[in-house]
# Entry
Amino acid sequence: MNRHLLSMNDLDRQDILAILGTAESMHDVQRREVKKLPTLRGRTVVNMFFEDSTRTRSSFELAGKWLSADVINISGKGSSTSKGESLRDTVRTVAAMGVDGFVIRHSASGAVHQVSEWVDAVVINAGDGTHEHPTQALLDAYSMRQRLGDLEGRHVAIVGDLTHSRVLRSNLICLKTLGAHVTVVAPPTLMPGGIATWAKNEGFDTSYDFDAVLPTVDAVMMLRVQRERMSGGFFPTEREYTVGYGLTRERLRSLQKHTVILHPGPMNRGLEIATDAADAAQSLVLDQVSAGVAVRMSVLYHLLAGEGTVA
# Structure
């Protein structure tokens, strides 16, 4: 396993399975009355989030604390970057204090990779622009495996705002490595540029017809419509988007009984996913949140407890 986790490409199948296997043990910690392991005692982890976050930031903080690391949270608005200091100077300043690991979210694609070249500490990508979000893909895979078992040969649909999604790329890499078959579904305006070539090279399918794909899948992952990253008219109205690409109450009935529903959150209820679907018995939305802590505990363990080697 690489020293940092910047992309799902940093992990091979053995690495992924090792992280997911350790996450099962870490998940048990969440069920204990005393949620604490001594594994990272004496280690210091800095969470630097230059974009808003609830799930990822909170779960990384809990993960570090439950492993007994000293955890420091720094937000973009509360750091010297808001005074004009460069990202390089900010992270090098913090690194000079002797920290062991950085967990970083940034609005610029590639920013986290750059940070890894500026510091000696371990760097974990908590989402960089529209590029990648590797720990999200790991927790998604963990959640699906808990319900469906081995993902080899399983059919997963990833639906929605693909153009602005960092979750998409990480999941495509992760699911392919685990042997799943993926179909991405979106309106033409929200399909990434060069999608045909990308699909051919990486071995996934594309579709504009949600209703044709939905009855055939073992898992459907709905992606959030990222209004904050949109500056133009990607679809006529929200209602039209929901009619064409939302997981509505009517579409919920077309799912196979074993099919699971995922959403990385936060959800736009009534837009890309109906409340009936988000709260259905087959929904893994809350399972994903719970898995996020376990998976991120596992990632911190593998990168910080074993000097960068997979246990």
